[in-house]
Amino acid sequence: MATTTTTWVELPTELLFQIAKYLEPEDLAQFHLVCTRFKTIGRDNAVWQEHCFVGSSMYESVWLPRLQDADGGNQNNNNNVTVAQGTNNDPNQPPVNPQHITPHILMQMIANGNLPPGVHLPHGLIHHFAHGHGIGHPAMNHSLHQIQQQLHHNHHGHHPPLPQTGQTNTSDNDGSQADDQASEASNQDEDSPRNSHQERLRIRANWDPSYPDEDISWYDEYIHRHAPTVVNWFEPARRKDINDRWVNIDARGVALYRPGNALGDPAGDNTLLAISPLDDGGICIWDVNGTRGKKGSIWAQSKPGLLFVDGPQGDNSRASKRVDSGVTECVSVDNQRHRAFFAVQSHLIDVDLKTLSVVGCESFPWSITALSPANATVPLTIATSLGIHLHDYKSRPNTPTDHTEQVDTFSSIGAQFFYEQGLRNLFTDVPLPPYAPLAQPGPLSILHLQEPGSLADLSDDIYVAGRFSHILHYDRRTFPTMKDSIYSGGSLCGMTSSPYPFSALCSERRRRGQMSLDDIANSKSIPGGRTLIACGEYSSKGTLEIYGLSPNPDLSGKMEIAGHQNRYTASGSKLLSVVNHGARIAVSDANGYIKWFERDGFTEIRRVKIGHCEGRRSTGQGADEEPSVFERSALDDIARKILPTGPVEGAGDRRNVNDLLFWTGDKLGAVGFSTKQGTVPEDFFGEEGVADRERAEREERYADLVRTALVKHAEEARWLDGGMRSD
Fold first, then answer.
1. What's the whole-model pTM score?
2. Domain 219-238+245-399+411-618+628-684: CATH architecture, name and number where available
3. What is the pLDDT of residues 514-528, one digit of tens each?
4. Residue 293: helix, strand or coil by DSSP?
């Protein structure tokens, strides 16, 4: 009789899913490269969510102790009640009660090699493991029963039974429920496997940072949590000086631009550009994700003088005429209307991104300190040193002149018209539009809060934070009247939000693994709940603050606010920027680190120092090669602003596209998650640029040599002068 052979591809999908669950992440990544069908199975969200949970700190600190014997663990003053561990290698420790070792715990003991001395594995057990036999298989159950008999035979003496898996002490007392749990343990032996599985699901639900309607790729989450990090530096903006030599121009801010199909390119839907004002008054546009050229390369650059306060024809040699380097939120982009707004001292310059030409200029009585993100559905909110203003640019008339010039044919005459018009409007007798005065100067961040459950739709809520103790809340419909405020006590410089609810009490209990499945579901479904996240400085340390906002049940229109602040473990220095990055919170600090936290704001996932990237390039000169001039200059860089580069809603079939863009104050880069080497500015230069870079490095080495010689000469002169005086 002929036999038939079944290939892997012919196996049922359900069976392949079960096989994929037992693969390690490295093997699973190779598994989904086989074919399209395996790719769908290998990127299953449930599989990668489980891997994310296994790699989390909660799995290690909360769940694993429940699988181990912590004899005397009930004496700890925390709420983690441990489960019997099978090992007893310490002769001073009493043996565990074999009645409380369930088949699931026994399987974990065998896998970890924690069987007590004198217990031998039955013949054929390894064979069952190799063939994937688990609990429920007759042969495996027989082998486990033999091991339990050995444990029972070797057990001597009587000891208080330990709590079963699935029993969690949620009391704040020192194990006040231990007696009740011990008395019930003997009645739950038959249900222990089921209880163990339910308890694991409960702990995982406590960790799970996602919300019911949230679209999260857990495959990307695992990459961002565990893959090597790499820093890709962008091509620097350059111009030739009077000596015909290339010089770098500092970038003075950054915002992201998603043009869609407006630029007439089939790749427009996936195109992401970075917009920056330059120190010479120009504008530079970078290709962030490489859809129009090399990733991180310059896509367009305007001529200098476009953003100078006195116009391109004025005297702009002084810093007071240029973009203020101390303003982080100095550029904002409207993706739908393809407009960019730049804060230059007390002027707001409106630029058409299709032509890189100035189409408007508005002047304010005080220096602009922050801009809100621009959106076509709401007016732009502008913070000056002493007031908050609304700017409805959609109702402003355009220039009477014909602005058809492109990047290389910029007309300074049209721009000059707007500069002069803005100054005239400031000194006319027409009163200023209504604005909200500030009792204390120094607003640094503006947030337009989303509608509940929506990432793209904005509500009428405006939040302002800065160098004052409160976060100010305005309603656009009743502006300029302040609606209410949130007391912080710190000096805040960055804000972001989430359209999902947050409860400080539930977050703290979840962080300790104490909430039930029903309580978790209720905490994630608070009607109208949203989350405000802020960062800054408190008592010379970093502060990461999370506030849950929910409608007040008395229908007064005010928000119920409940939050907590991480002012001890967030950072030893000031936090500079905060964003949502997938299912994590990303922050940058003044020590040069970018850190990722769980959504509780306390549990750190990982960190990277942008000046010490893992993907440093090698020139092939050996391990002792000296870093280049750029690498030395980047060692102390800090990320003043960070932005996620992933799509706003859904990435389709694209994966690992959500890098973290950062601005250091003079240049741009991005933190990626890959084993590839990172890029440096030299990668974008041609032969002429490389020659200039090599000449600059020679000049730098020569300057260091001369500096060292002068210092040595000065030391010798002081020594000789001291010796002559002593004689």
1. 0.75
2. 7 Propeller (2.130)
3. 899 999 999 998 888
4. coil
